[in-house]
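Protein: Cyclophilin TM1367-like domain-containing protein
Species: Thalassolituus marinus
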Amino acid sequence: MHLLSLRFDSGEVRIVLRRSATAKALLKVVPFTATMQTSRGSLMFDCPLTVRPEEPNTTDLVQVGDIAFWSDASSLVIGFGPTPRSQGNEVRLAHPCAIIGDALDDLSILSQVTAGSSVTVSLASAEPLASASGA
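Structure follows.
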C-alpha cells in the first residue's frame, strides 16, 4: 500500500493509491508542487507524469474522495461535492478520468482551497493510519 500526502494552505489530505499503472507512474514523480485550479465541487492540478499510461476504465461519475487522473491534461482531479455537471448530489467530473486512489481524511478543507494556491504532493507515512476516516 502506498500513501501520498496532498498539502494545501488549509491542511492535508492523505490518499492511498490503488494498484494501477498510473498510480505506479505517479510514485516515480513525487514529490512535486503544483498550482490549483478550482471548480464548484472539484479541484484539479497538473501532475508531471512524462508518460501518460492508459487505464482501461475511465468515468466522469465518481464518489466523494476518489482521486482521479485525467490523462488528456496530465492532471490529478479530486471530486468532493456536486459539480456544475452533476445531477442532484452526484459528483460528476468535467472529463472521464481513471480512479487511481482514495482519500483517507476529511475533505471539508478542500472547499477552502483557492484557485492559484499551491499543493505539495509527497509520500506519506502509514503510522497514524488508524485515525484516518477511511481506514
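Remarks: The domain at 3-122 is CATH 2.40.100.20 (Cyclophilin).
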